[in-house]
Amino acid sequence: MTFRARHLLGIEHLAPLEITTVLDLADRYVDLNRRTVKQSDVLAGMTQINMFFENSTRTQASFELAGKRLGADVMNMSVAQSSVKKGETLIDTAMTLNAMHPDLLVVRHGASGAVNLLASKVNCAVLNAGDGRHEHPTQALLDALTIRRAKGRIQRLTVAICGDIAHSRVARSNLILLGKMENRIRLIGPPTLMPAGIGEFGVEVYDDMKKGLEGADVVMMLRLQKERMDGGFIPSEREYYHRYGLDADKLSHAKPDAIVMHPGPMNRGVEIDGDLADDINRSVIQDQVEMGVAVRMACMDLLARNLRAERGRKIAGEMV
């Protein structure tokens, strides 16, 4: 398997073959997770620390479950009661954790680049569970696996990403991944929720939902990131739903077999019609949740292999 990364900090530094490696291994973990006995010993003897500076039910639960199914000792660090709240710097926290000799560190942080900073200060493998507006690599990988299993491929598809593009790290990671895999990408949303200079990314930009969805294979809805908004980006949620919320009428402009995605948590009646979100013939939202555990298992497995190999080389070098 081709996967050279020491950390998983973003999609940007992954080659297409490495992305395929993660998806192929994750496919095998989907099968494992559907068995009665779901345990593996791939991470036996290794310690995983989950450190979430931002709340996240889905991502934290998914990483915790992934680590436990692989046999790791998993610790969830409660940041609300941690020394960070008492004034400790992020670097001091990293040094403290490093002294405990963890093997895998899963970090979610509100500041872009914070996870990269931590990775530069520790000896273990670091996985980015979302940092500011920067990236959310495992979300893009689980989305890719969901698409590939639904469509039979992850290349040469027309993918429409709709909603709050400007504040979304999910959108950024998906843009990078889908671009690497040679897909046609359309971004749909109000101009106030589009990043500056987005036209330079080689994507098509629409502020008309129906035109943007024309002939799409995949419709990926995004959550309105209200916690990252400091102004009036939309007139009202009601008006937003009328223009940019996904309903059956707007979806009818996409291909008849187009799939509907959402990273969650959903604001029903704002970003997506509730009945459409639950439509088992179109929606793959619950599949995304299932794929999330498998993809995170694959990522930790691959990083652990590289970590063991690195430590093995170090020991061999010391013996020479």
TrEMBL record:
Kindly give the Gene3D superfamilies that the UniProt entry links to this protein.
Aspartate/ornithine carbamoyltransferase
- Sites binding L-aspartate sit at K86, R169, R223
Q: In which pathway does it act?
A: Pyrimidine metabolism; UMP biosynthesis via de novo pathway; (S)-dihydroorotate from bicarbonate: step 2/3
NCBIfam families this protein is in?
Answer: asp_carb_tr, PRK00856.1
Residues annotated as domain Aspartate/ornithine carbamoyltransferase carbamoyl-P binding: 6-148
Q: Which residues form the Aspartate/ornithine carbamoyltransferase Asp/Orn-binding domain?
A: 157-302
Q: Which reaction does it catalyse?
A: carbamoyl phosphate + L-aspartate = N-carbamoyl-L-aspartate + phosphate + H(+)
Name of this protein: Aspartate carbamoyltransferase
Alphabetically ordered keywords of this record = Pyrimidine biosynthesis, Transferase
Tell me the subunit arrangement: Heterododecamer (2C3:3R2) of six catalytic PyrB chains organized as two trimers (C3), and six regulatory PyrI chains organized as three dimers (R2).
Keyword Transferase tagged = yes
The record lists the organism as Paragemmobacter amnigenus
Regarding protein family, the annotation reads: Belongs to the aspartate/ornithine carbamoyltransferase superfamily. ATCase family.
Where is carbamoyl phosphate annotated to bind? Answer: R58, T59, R108, H136, Q139, G264, P265
- Alphabetized GO MF terms: aspartate carbamoyltransferase activity
| Top EC class for this record | transferase
Pfam families reported for this sequence:
OTCace (PF00185), OTCace_N (PF02729)
Task: Please give the superkingdom of this protein's source.
Answer: Bacteria
Q: Look up the EC number in the record and give it.
A: 2.1.3.2
